User: Which sequence fits this backbone?
């Protein structure tokens, strides 16, 4: 099968060549399971695999307490929209004591559980390969625990193998009319919790409910960082006026799910900021606005 024809705009020649390389690579596999979360990287792999392999491609969505229900619904909606076959799987990493202890390499145990289940499924049902959405930019971070877990399980990364960068992922996804082409990256809910704080189902449900309140405001890029009784909201600087405008509503909803103090981080959204803060210094309250009027002191 050739390149999809329903492109929104033409691709630059080098990028088109990489897309064709990706298509050929996936087509050569004959069949594949795709670790699919609904993010742009795995969505592109799913879409190309569906186009090249049809019913011999199966997108597998890992259902977990650390994966927001709204993300699962969006992933299912996209798969159904393009007609891709999908299945819900339950890696159940939350029952792994190593994961629940929330060490610095927590992601390793999460991905190990997921890829163990997918590779076992592939062996049992005769799928030729398990694919993930790691792209060429991620290769610079090959020491990431989650990437190491994938390598140990023999999971293949077709975007990386085709040399496709994150920017090119978005460019190709846009050309193929995938609505998630500009979707912000979405780390799992456990990433909102300081290393060493145990991960529980109840804690993840609390964080998910808190972030749902931000999502309901129409925000796309946000995090609620969990610091015991304190919810530290991170949004883009341009979205801060919206948060302040609805401060009473947000304060009520977040207090309803169990937070005592609701703060807005003036540094704004930054992926991995919690890990960075843990490396640099303990939590300091002077950089935060207490939305409910209570001053948070370090």
Assistant:
């Amino acid at each position: 099968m050739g390149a999809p024809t329903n492109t929104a705009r033409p691709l630059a020649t080098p990028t088109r060549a990489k897309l064709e390389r990706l298509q050929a690579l996936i087509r050569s596999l004959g069949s594949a399971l795709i670790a699919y979360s609904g993010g742009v990287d795995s969505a592109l792999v799913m879409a190309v695999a569906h186009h090249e392999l049809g019913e011999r491609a199966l997108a597998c969505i890992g259902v977990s307490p650390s994966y927001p229900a709204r993300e699962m619904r969006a992933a299912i909606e996209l798969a159904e929209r393009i007609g891709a076959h999908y299945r819900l799987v339950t890696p159940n990493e939350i029952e792994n004591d190593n994961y629940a202890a929330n060490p610095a390499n927590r992601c390793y145990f999460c991905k190990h559980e997921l890829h163990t289940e997918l590779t076992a499924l592939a062996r049992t049902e005769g799928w030729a390969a398990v694919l993930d959405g790691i792209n060429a930019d991620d290769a610079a971070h090959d020491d990431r625990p989650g990437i190491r877990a994938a390598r140990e399980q023999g999971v293949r990364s077709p975007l990386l193998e085709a040399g496709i960068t994150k920017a090119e992922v978005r460019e190709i996804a846009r050309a193929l009319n995938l609505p998630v082409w500009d979707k912000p990256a979405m780390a799992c809910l456990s990433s909102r919790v300081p290393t060493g704080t145990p991960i529980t189902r109840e804690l993840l449900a609390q964080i998910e409910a808190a972030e749902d309140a931000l999502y309901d405001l129409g925000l796309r890029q946000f995090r609620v960082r969990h610091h015991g009784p304190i919810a530290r909201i991170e949004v883009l600087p341009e979205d801060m006026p919206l948060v302040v405008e609805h401060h009473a509503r947000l304060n009520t909803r977040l207090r309803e799910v169990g937070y005592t103090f609701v703060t807005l981080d003036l540094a704004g959204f930054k992926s991995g900021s919690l890990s960075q803060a843990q490396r640099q210094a303990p939590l300091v309250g002077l950089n935060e606005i207490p939305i409910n009027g209570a001053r948070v002191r370090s």
User: Anything to note?
Assistant: The mean pLDDT is 90. The two ends are 60 Å apart (CA to CA). Residues 136 and 160 are 4 Å apart (CA to CA). The chain is about 45% helix and 10% strand.
